[in-house]
Design brief:
By secondary structure, the chain is an alpha/beta fold. It has two domains: 229 residues, TIM Barrel (Alpha-Beta Barrel), CATH 3.20.20; 31 residues, no CATH class. 39% of the residues lie in helices and 13% in strands. It contains eleven helices and eight strands. Strands 1-2-3-4-5-6-7-8 form an eight-stranded parallel β-barrel, surrounded by seven helices. Helix 6 links the parallel strand 4 and strand 5. Helix 2 crosses helix 4. The N terminus is likely disordered. The structure holds 3-methyl-2-oxobutanoic acid. The site of 3-methyl-2-oxobutanoic acid has 12 residues, from strand 6.
């Protein structure tokens, strides 16, 4: 595992494409803008620890999000709402340590930016200085305009998150956003506001595919879809969903690329049976 700082000067190569290129430096937000200009799509996965992040980094995933989905997917909370800045900082630092190429984006947790721009800048600065993330993400377009502007003006790249914003689950529930003319226009205004405030990308979560396509066409910054159809510039999935570690029913927009829960359960049972049956350890595992 490497211990790399994400704001290394932009020298060296990132590879011919964002995904998969070996590269000799960390990916920057500028690389993402250029990918949109080339019409190149890219993948983003979440990660919450150094080991998982290193697997995704080695696989060539160009952007890793330390999402506040760590609340339900890693820390055992019911929602993202309880996640704290201390938890986000600790786990973001681990993800940065586990990567050398990916741009690491740290989520600003609920309560760490809603009070206003000064609180938002303080939280973003902490994630950059203490964890070493290359960018932060926050929820809201027009409603988070002042926060986005101040953070960007201070030199920290911001990814905006629109559509279903899980930190507002108590107000909006989990349902498709942007349906109907008024809601669709609001989403377009939010996306434009985020771009005008200086955001480098916009996550669109649970948004009708046609609306996400329209937002994607109307922005010069990339859109990152999750449950937002195929026309977005990038796609993100929560890693525990995508690799089959999450138990229970998954949202319809998730595609499972592995069955890790089954693989890990079988491995744990095989180990237990070896121990109980006295077949582990054997001679080759022993010292004399
Ligand atoms: O926290 C998270 O994982 C996210 C993604 C779903 C975009 O915000």
């Amino acid at each position: 595992m490497t211990h790399a700082v994400s704001h290394a000067p932009e020298q060296g190569k990132v590879g011919p494409t964002l995904y998969g290129g070996k590269g000799t430096r960390r990916i920057t937000v500028r690389d993402l803008t250029q990918a949109k200009e080339r019409g190149e799509k890219w993948p983003m996965l979440t990660a919450y620890d150094a080991m998982t992040a290193s697997v995704f980094d080695e696989a060539g995933i160009p952007v890793i999000l330390v999402g506040d989905s760590m609340g339900n997917c890693h820390l055992g909370y019911d929602t993202t709402v309880p996640v704290t800045m201390d938890e986000m900082t600790l786990l973001s630092a681990a993800v940065v340590r586990g990567t050398s190429r990916a741009l690491v984006v740290g989520d600003l947790p609920f309560g760490s930016y809603q009070e206003g721009p000064v609180q938002a800048l303080r939280s973003a600065t902490r994630l950059v200085k203490e964890a070493g993330v290359g960018a932060v993400k926050l929820e809201g377009g027009e409603r988070s305009l002042a926060q986005t502007e101040l953070i960007v003006q201070s030199g920290i790249p911001v990814m905006s998150h629109l559509g279903l914003t899980p930190q507002s689950v108590n107000a909006m529930g989990y349902r498709v956003q942007g349906r109907g003319d008024e809601a669709a226009h609001q989403l377009l205004r939010d996306a434009k506001a985020a771009q005008d405030a200086g955001a480098f990308a916009v996550v669109l979560e649970l948004v009708p595919a046609e609306l996400a396509a329209e937002v994607t066409r109307s922005l010069h910054i990339p859109t990152v879809g999750i449950g937002a159809g195929s026309e977005c510039d990038a796609q993100v999935l929560v890693w525990t969903d995508a690799l089959g570690l999450t138990s229970g029913k998954l949202p319809r927009f998730v595609k499972k690329y592995a069955e890790l829960r089954q693989v890990m359960g079988e491995a744990a049972r095989a180990f237990a049976e070896d121990v109980v049956g006295g077949t582990f350890p054997q001679e080759e595992h022993s010292f004399h």
